[in-house]
Design goal:
It is a single chain. With 181 residues, the protein is α+β, with helices and mostly antiparallel strands. It has one domain: 2-Layer Sandwich (BirA Bifunctional Protein, domain 2). It is 29% helix and 31% strand. Strands 1, 2, 3, 4, 5, 6, 7 and 8 form an eight-stranded mixed sheet that branches. Strand 6 and strand 7 form a beta hairpin. Helix 2 packs across helix 5. It is globular, with a radius of gyration of 16 Å.
C-alpha cells in the first residue's frame, strides 16, 4: 500500500480522481493534513483543519465481479472502519456505531455526536473511499460545521478516550487500511 501524504489540498477525493485521470498507479492512498474543500455525501462540506483529523482517500479498481450497490458497499466500508477503530482502541471501550449509511456516531455522557463520515464515489472503473475522522477538538470544526449538522454535533476521538495520549494517527490509519484491504 503506497500512501501519498500532502500537507494541504482541496480534497483527497479530487486528488484521487486527478491521479486516476493521469493513469498513475504509484499511489493508492492519499492522505492530507488539511483540506480546503473536504466534502461528504450530498455535497456537504467536511471541515478539515490541520491537526484536527484524519483525511484519507483509498482508491480501488472496480472489478467486473464486484456487484456495486452504493448503499451496501458504503455501509460495509463504514462498519469495517468502526471495527478497526474499536479493535485499535479496545481498552477504551468506545461507544461508536453506524448511522446508516455512511456516518460513524459516538455516545458520550448519554449524548450522541458525529465522529466520522465516509464517502464512496465511483469514478472511471474505480471506487474512491473517502474517510474523514475527527481526531482532536477544533473550534473551527464546531463553529463552521455545527449549523449544517441537524442531528449531532461533532466530537473527536481524543475526546472519547480515557487516555488521549495513546492516539497515534499513523497507527490508526494502518489499522483501518489493514481492515479494508
Amino acid at each position: 500500500m503506497k500512501i501519498l501524504v500532502i500537507d494541504e489540498i482541496d480534497s483527497t477525493q479530487n486528488e484521487a480522481k486527478r491521479l486516476i485521470d493521469k493513469g498513475s498507479q504509484e499511489y493508492n492512498v492519499i492522505r492530507a493534513l488539511s483540506q480546503t474543500h473536504g466534502r461528504g455525501t450530498w455535497g456537504k462540506s467536511w471541515a478539515s483543519p490541520k491537526g484536527a483529523g484524519l483525511y484519507v482517500s483509498l482508491m480501488r479498481k472496480k472489478t467486473e465481479n464486484l456487484k456495486f450497490s452504493y448503499e451496501t458497499y458504503t455501509q460495509e466500508i463504514t462498519i469495517s472502519i468502526i471495527k478497526a477503530i474499536q479493535e485499535f482502541f479496545v481498552e477504551e471501550s468506545l461507544d461508536i456505531f453506524l448511522k446508516p449509511i455512511n456516518d460513524i456516531y459516538a455516545k458520550k455522557d448519554n449524548t450522541t455526536y458525529k465522529l466520522a463520515g465516509i464517502l464512496v464515489e465511483e469514478y472511471h472503473k474505480h471506487l474512491i473511499i473517502g474517510i474523514g475522522i475527527n481526531l482532536y477538538p477544533s473550534s473551527y470544526l464546531v463553529k463552521e460545521e455545527l449549523p449544517s449538522l441537524p442531528k449531532a454535533a461533532p466530537i473527536s476521538l481524543s475526546e472519547l478516550m480515557q487516555n488521549p495520549s495513546k492516539l497515534n494517527e499513523d497507527e490508526l490509519l494502518n489499522a483501518i487500511l489493514k481492515e479494508l484491504c
